[in-house]
Amino acid sequence: MSEHLHSGHHDHHAHDGGPAATSWSMAATATLHCLTGCAIGEVLGMVIGTSLGLHDLATVVLSVALAFVFGYALTMRGVLRAGVPWRSALKVALAADTISITVMEIIDNTAMLTIPGAMDAGIASVLFWMSLAASLVLAFLITTPVNRWLISRGKGHAVVHQYHH
């Protein structure tokens, strides 16, 4: 937090200033934004897959697919609101979120598959929901430094920034 207060005036130089110029606060905000879409898709996929009794792999594939759909959709919504045409908004979303969503999905699905009994627990179980929550927290913690690095290089969520103003 204190780093953000001291480096706030450097944020507009993030493209050439390296990671130090990109605040942890900015990276965390970008990651949280991405996590929102990912979490909606991930939770829906896990709930649908588990409820239908799908194989673990099919459940993970469904979760990952929905995470990308919702992750891109949330980014596109903001960009479209800025008056950008649909095709261009899709390109911005793909550039902004692909690496972030990929890292998140690898982390949270690996966690769900490795937590004993999590995939078989069923949606009425505390184990299922605690595992899912823990996997998303872990994904957030690991993806935030990745996003900080990407933003510092003018990539990832940095490409969306121009449409937020």
From TrEMBL:
InterPro entries: DUF4396 (IPR025509). Keywords: Membrane, Transmembrane, Transmembrane helix. This is DUF4396 domain-containing protein. The chain crosses the membrane at residues 57-76, 127-146. Residues 23-156 form the DUF4396 domain. It comes from the Bacteria. It holds the Pfam family DUF4396.
